[in-house]
Design a protein that fits this description.
22 strands; globular
């Protein structure tokens, strides 16, 4: 009979209870850490999960060592402890619970197996495998962000490409005037320039190198082809990163670690498929740096390396620093040996020629050899900017490298360890990196505009991932490797969250000092207020807060080193690693909150998140914790009415007359619009959902709220909403809140998709979900060749609705599906049809999908029209 160990069964049961807790959702009712409301999963599920976890542990012969990391899951219970608790306990609620389970899984794997030494083989032991995996991931990342890309400066690089292909020049004024950018972005664009050429023509402020490189891909496959091409180039760069790390260490596992650290984290991952010069620049740098790790390089390879260095300044002027310094490093390498000196000519011929051509370009276009000529007098570079830009690029929560990819702390440490054995290589890498880092730090706009974090560091950071391979392969300490794995796991998780949530919305921040990823990660407390920000704080103040985080992380690593000396087992060490990280995070957050004297709990954001978690099937139980009562259980529907949607106090409202700003998803349902205190004595309020949308509903504040709250029906969930007042409201003051009375569930729920824009058309509200429509004043166009989805709901309850369809100026097949019932319309040019929209009594509206098979461009059929949109069919509601 098998002997039963109690520890695995207890650990598994504890994890089962934590799994039940993690299904729940919690909110703070006020800034008090004792006043909370929440939803919990069915109570019968708790013992069922505990028994299931324990049974799985028994059936799989889970050992004591392997089971110990399961106890870390109990941190998920901390936010639910009744009574007054530290604000840091609320760290362990919201989406961060997935990180807890990831930590548990990694801990169990590391506790249950020895470090695997991967032998060199065709599948795992080659740079080709690294490049192939990276290429697939970059394509997936580009697809995930396709709804918001191209953005920022990307369209402007593509316009230069169009000018090269269609005009044979880089004079771009006519390309913008013709709206050629509408092929890949629907937002009006203007030429980005600061100084005209000496011929009076407009030349882009952006360098022509990238547009020229991607021109063949754009000519063949348009913008998608450019994304695939850039992803392929970046994948080649990741393969060279793998190879360089393997050449340095001889370790396959170290090469994979360096590859993951440099190729799959911020910033390189998000620059791999973006139409920016940074991703392709990093690949060229990795290629040019290969001789630093490889003893013998042929003359033909040296010519190619010289060409790579010569191309860098053509991609961006700031890359000239890398080209010059790395070129000098390689030149000194060659000059140190007789064989190397024989290859100097082959190495220098292309970069010297390219440099002459590069300076001549500015002389021909702008009348000066100065590469800063395109910027006029607006270069925004000053040496004093380094005092802010340098620490910000490292520590800022939105755009710094360490908060978004902490594995680079391990990489920087690896550079120091590398110097003990290969001092010259460490010095060369340091000189190249530091020269470039200082040069970009002089730029006032160190954050890089609309871009992923640390974009300006992307060309050099993958090169600095290689020393991490050396540290990984040479360290004898379990604590060091545990730290490395933890930092890499957090960094990869950050990439996955940014790429996978909201179509990439979390990647691109505005300069307000609140990282979107941190705000998403936890809805109950303000993680952003516990992290350094170089926008909300001075450079010294932000650096102080960064020092607190460094000190807490250092204390955690020191504790692990002390524990390692005791000879503790792998399971206990894995549990201690997760616990040390958790304590370090809670300690750093608490210290920063105390310095700033802020209340970490965020009632408005957490209650809005709790509203989104309402689901009587998954979470039927409500929890109320309000002093002096410790805990009260009731139905989830009763707790729903206690939720208040209010304007976040941590953010500046959109305008002086903003009455309500809800900057997150509002579930479809029925709401009461209530004034806070007395209703405004005058003015009109307008409900707006979506950018550039018109008011979906209006209220006379003095009259409509006289007898109580107004009712608001949302047929589906919306991404955000604003209720703004006119000038009369601005004089009388006041604000509004939403209180939910019903949330659509089950059959009443039209769809789980989120509407991004709402327009009123006659008797109906129309909810738009995608970018495949063009809303106008009286109706909307559906793109030709695309499928659009909308939801419609009558303004007056049970009022009949009709869908009016007018075909475009071409023969067309239009498929229309109304709540699952599809019909096909074969339409002649300008033919019209009217279709009834049946709406069930227990549903708030109808879900409609429209697919226009063909379309036309007004500019091709209407004389004098500059409208190049590809329009399919016109829709009105009647």
């Amino acid at each position: 009979m098998r002997r039963v160990e109690l520890t695995p069964l207890i650990a598994a049961a504890a994890a089962g209870f934590a799994a039940w807790i993690s299904i729940g959702s919690l909110a703070v009712a006020s800034t008090s850490t004792a006043s909370r409301v929440g939803f919990l999963a069915p109570f019968w599920l708790a013992p069922l999960l505990m028994a299931a976890f324990a049974s799985a542990a028994w059936a799989s012969n889970l050992t004591r060592s392997t089971s110990l990391p399961l106890f870390f899951s109990l941190v998920l219970v901390l936010p639910w402890i009744p009574g007054q608790v530290p604000a840091a306990f609320f760290l362990w609620t919201g989406p961060i619970v997935f990180a807890v389970w990831l930590a548990v899984s990694v801990g169990m794997i590391s506790a249950g197996s020895q470090i695997v030494v991967v032998k060199r083989n065709k599948l795992f032991g080659s740079s080709y495998a690294a490049g192939a995996v990276a290429f697939a991931l970059y394509l997936a990342g580009g697809w995930s962000l396709s709804a918001i890309l191209p953005g920022g400066d990307e369209p402007h690089y593509l316009v230069i490409t169009q000018s090269l292909l269609r005009d044979g020049d880089i004079r771009i004024e006519n390309n913008y005037a013709q709206g050629q950018y509408l092929e890949y972005i629907g937002v009006p664009q203007r030429p980005q320039y600061l100084k005209r050429g000496i011929n009076g023509e407009i030349y882009s402020i952006h360098a022509p190198g990238l547009p020229a490189v991607v021109a063949p891909a754009f000519a063949l496959f348009g913008y998608p082809g450019v994304v695939v091409f850039l992803s392929l180039v970046a994948a080649v760069g990741s393969a060279m990163l793998w190879r360089s790390a393997h050449l340095l260490t001889g370790s396959v596992s170290a090469a994979w670690f360096a590859w993951a650290a440099g190729a799959l984290t911020v910033p390189f991952f998000f620059e791999a498929f973006a139409v920016f010069p940074d991703g392709i620049g990093a690949t060229l740098v990795l290629f040019a740096a290969l001789p630093l790790f490889q003893e013998r390089v042929s003359s033909r390879r040296w010519v190619a390396i010289g060409a790579a260095l010569g191309l860098l300044p053509w991609l961006h002027t700031r890359f000239a620093v890398i080209s010059a310094v790395l070129g000098l490093v390689l030149f000194l390498r060659l000059a140190a040996s007789r064989d190397g000196r024989s290859r100097i000519a082959a190495f220098l011929i292309v970069p010297i020629t390219a440099a002459i051509a590069w300076f001549s370009f500015f002389r021909i276009v702008y009348g000066t050899f100065d590469p800063a000529a395109p910027y006029g007098r607006a270069t925004q570079t000053r040496a004093m900017n380094i005092l802010n830009g340098l620490p910000a690029l490292v520590f800022d929560q939105q755009f710094g490298i360490l908060p978004n990819a902490p594995v680079y702390a391990f990489c920087f440490l690896g550079l120091g360890v590398l110097a003990r054995r290969h001092w010259r290589l460490a010095l060369e890498l340091s000189v190249v990196s530091l020269a470039y880092l200082l040069s970009v730090s002089t730029f006032h706009m160190w954050w890089g505009g609309f871009s992923a974090p640390a974009r300006f560091l992307a060309p050099i950071l993958p090169l600095l991932a290689i020393p991490a391979a050396w540290l990984w392969s040479t360290t004898p300490h379990r604590a060091t490797r545990a730290w490395a794995v933890t930092a890499l796991a957090i960094s990869l998780l950050a990439t996955a969250i940014m790429a996978g949530v909201g179509g990439g919305f979390l990647v691109y921040n505005v300069r307000d000092g609140y990282a979107r990823a941190l705000e998403w990660l936890n809805p109950v407390i303000d993680l952003s207020l516990g992290m350094p920000s170089f926008f909300r704080q001075t450079s010294g103040g932000a650096s102080l807060r960064a020092a607190i985080w460094i000190a807490c992380a250092g204390a955690a690593v020191f504790a692990l080193r002390v524990l390692e000396r005791t000879g503790v087992g792998r399971g206990a060490f894995a549990l201690a690693t997760s616990a040390a990280l958790a304590l370090a995070m809670m300690g750093a957050l608490t210290a920063v909150w105390a310095i700033d004297d802020v209340a970490a709990p965020n009632p408005e954001k957490s209650q809005l998140s709790l509203l989104g978690a309402f689901d009587t099937r998954l979470r039927p139980n409500g929890v109320v914790m309000q002093p002096p009562q410790m805990m009260r259980l009731q139905a989830a529907g009763e707790v729903l009415s206690m939720i208040v949607v209010a304007t976040p106090t941590r953010r500046t409202p959109a305008g002086e007359s903003t009455l309500l700003l809800a900057p997150a998803i509002i579930p479809g349902g029925t709401y009461e619009v209530r004034p806070v205190g007395e209703a405004p004595s005058a003015g009109t309020a307008r409900l707006v959902i979506g950018r550039q949308a018109r008011p979906a509903r209006t209220w006379d504040l003095a009259a409509d709220f006289r007898d109580g709250p107004e009712e608001l029906d949302l047929a589906v969930s919306v991404g955000s909403l604003v209720i703004a007042g006119d000038s009369g409201v601005g004089r009388s003051g006041g604000s509004l809140t939403l209180r939910p009375t019903k949330v659509w569930e089950g059959r009443s729920r039209l769809t789980g998709d989120i509407a991004r824009r709402v327009e009123r058309y006659g008797p109906a509200l129309v909810f738009f979900f995608d970018g495949n429509t063009f809303p106008e004043d009286s109706g909307f166009w559906v793109w030709g060749g695309r499928r659009a989805q909308v939801a419609v709901s009558p303004v007056e309850h049970r009022a009949p609705l009709q869908l009016f369809v007018r075909n475009a100026a071409a023969v067309n097949e239009v498929r229309i599906e109304i709540d699952g019932a599809e019909q096909t319309l074969n339409l002649q040019p300008s033919e019209e049809r009217t279709l009834p929209i049946p709406i069930d009594e227990d549903r708030p509206g109808a879900l409609i999908r429209i697919h226009s098979q063909s379309g036309f461009r007004p500019s091709e059929v209407e004389k004098g029209s500059a409208d190049t949109r590809f329009l399919g069919t016109w829709i009105e509601l009647r």
